């Protein structure tokens, strides 16, 4: 079979790619929610450690993806590379032996297993034994917050860390697990590509949000859509409550207390944060906006539209200073009611050109739609030219 050539290459590399099996849960809580975990040192070594954690560390979440969801069985039986690409999974071309895709069978699930053995599937970690059997699978931060540049074919290329994977369909992937009921699978299938509900597993309410970028965080002290806490607060929340990692997350404000020891999450948060803060927002591509119109739009932004009253500073956000009620900005209110703050933070605008759709629920398809929303809701009375110019300025950030 044609996948065997890829498997032979994989066998020359380390086969055990994930964390080992976790120990039993014990009830010895330590609180991390609400604390700001400062990156210590900021050295190249710390940053390199953070990149390794971001890309490859499962925090022991095989306990969920293998033991509970049985995704290793699903992948081995039914997820060939073409199916994997169709649900938004990405392949890191740097991890592939030269020319291997020319002979690999992309319609065979065994090829997916071989790719996992090569550690080539972005954000998905597999443990493969000497017989080529996938024995365990877990996920990393990169699954949702990295993509590739499509330099080989769509879905296969060089990693782009921090970029939101808006092709990823987490709900469809999860729905393949036999652990969910048919009713739960219908909820998961309703999300669609680029959306995930990080609170559904906690409160049972179905209100998915757009997967956000993990770049441009350096000047954003409260990153979440609802400003619940600093970046490391959300890293801990996701690693423990969503990825299913082995760690500690306690926040009485939302009634969540999860303790799994030994803690494989908290000690890694400083280095992870350091790497995330190093990921700058990508500049707009050359020729992607009208510079003359953007210059006029900046005057509208700072003047008539009044955008700079909330969108200011290096990241163009007042997050950390002010949070906003849903009716203040005219957005969907339910998601905020499920959070600790019951409010929304101001979205950072650096790199906004790269990640449509906009607002937490993706209700604005384009930056022009964002401008139209605020012009209408806030009664800005912008002219058509001012709207166009303001849109060009947003595209330039």
Fold and architecture overview:
By secondary structure, this protein is an alpha+beta fold. The protein has two domains: 3-277, no CATH class; 291-396, Cytochrome c-like domain (Cytochrome Bc1 Complex, Chain D, domain 2, Orthogonal Bundle), CATH 1.10.760.10. It has helices at residues 3-11, 44-56, 62-68, 71-78, 81-86, 109-117, 142-145, 170-175, 182-189, 200-203, 231-242, 269-277, 291-302, 326-329, 334-337, 367-378, 384-396, and strands spanning 91-92, 124-128, 134-139, 146-148, 156-157, 159-161, 195-196, 209-210, 248-251, 256-259, 323-324, 344-345. A two-stranded parallel ribbon has the order 1-5. A two-stranded antiparallel ribbon has the order 2-3. Strands 4-6 form a two-stranded antiparallel ribbon. Helix 13 packs across helix 17.
Question: How far apart are the first and last residues' alpha carbons, in Å?
Answer: 50 Å
Shape: globular
Percentage of residues in helical conformation: 25-40%
- Broad structural category: alpha+beta
Please write the string of helix (H) and strand (E) elements. HHHHHEHEEHEEEHHEHEHEEHHEHHEHH
Strand segment count: 12
Q: Order the strands across the largest sheet as they lie in space.
A: 1-5
**Into which percentage range does the β-strand content fall?**
5-15%
Instruction: Characterize the biggest β-sheet.
Output: 2 strands, parallel
Assembly type of the chains comes to single chain
Rg, alpha carbons: 22 Å
| Averaged pLDDT | 91
Total separate domains:
2
Unreliable spans are: 1-36
**So how many helices?**
17
């Amino acid at each position: 079979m044609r996948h065997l050539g890829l498997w032979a290459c994989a066998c020359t590399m380390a086969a055990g790619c994930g964390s080992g099996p976790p120990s039993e849960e014990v009830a010895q809580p330590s609180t991390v929610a609400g604390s700001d975990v400062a990156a210590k040192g900021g050295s190249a070594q710390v940053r390199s450690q953070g990149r390794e954690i971001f890309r490859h560390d499962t925090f022991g979440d095989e306990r969920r993806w293998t033991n509970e969801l049985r995704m290793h069985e699903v992948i081995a039986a039914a997820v060939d590379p073409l199916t994997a690409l169709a649900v938004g999974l990405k392949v890191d071309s740097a991890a592939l032996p030269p020319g291997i895709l020319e002979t690999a069978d992309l319609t065979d699930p065994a090829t997916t297993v071989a790719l996992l053995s090569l550690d080539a599937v972005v954000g998905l970690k597999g443990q493969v034994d000497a017989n080529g059997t996938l024995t365990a699978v877990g996920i990393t931060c990169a699954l949702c917050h990295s993509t590739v540049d499509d330099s080989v074919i769509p879905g296969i290329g060089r990693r782009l860390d921090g970029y939101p994977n808006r092709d990823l369909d987490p709900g469809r992937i999860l729905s393949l697990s036999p652990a969910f009921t048919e009713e739960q699978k219908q909820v998961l299938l309703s999300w669609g590509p680029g959306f995930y509900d990080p609170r559904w597993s906690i409160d049972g309410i179905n209100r998915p949000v757009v997967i956000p970028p993990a770049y441009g965080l350096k000047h954003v002290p409260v990153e979440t859509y609802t400003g619940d806490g600093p970046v490391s607060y959300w890293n801990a929340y996701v690693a423990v409550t969503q990825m299913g990692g082995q760690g500690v997350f306690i926040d009485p404000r939302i009634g969540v207390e999860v303790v799994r020891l030994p803690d494989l999450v908290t000690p890694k948060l400083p280095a992870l944060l350091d790497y995330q803060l190093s990921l700058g927002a990508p500049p707009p591509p050359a020729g992607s906006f009208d510079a003359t119109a953007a210059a006029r739009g900046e005057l509208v932004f700072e003047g008539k539209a009044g955008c700079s009253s909330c969108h200011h500073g290096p990241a163009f956000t007042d997050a950390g200073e002010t949070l906003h009620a849903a009716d203040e900005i005219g957005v969907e209110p339910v998601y905020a009611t499920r959070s600790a703050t019951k409010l929304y933070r101001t979205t950072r605008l650096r790199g906004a050109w790269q990640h449509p759709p906009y607002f937490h629920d993706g209700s604005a398809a384009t930056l022009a739609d964002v401008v139209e929303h605020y012009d209408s809701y806030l009664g800005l009375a912008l002219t058509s030219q001012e709207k166009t110019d303001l849109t060009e300025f947003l595209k330039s950030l």
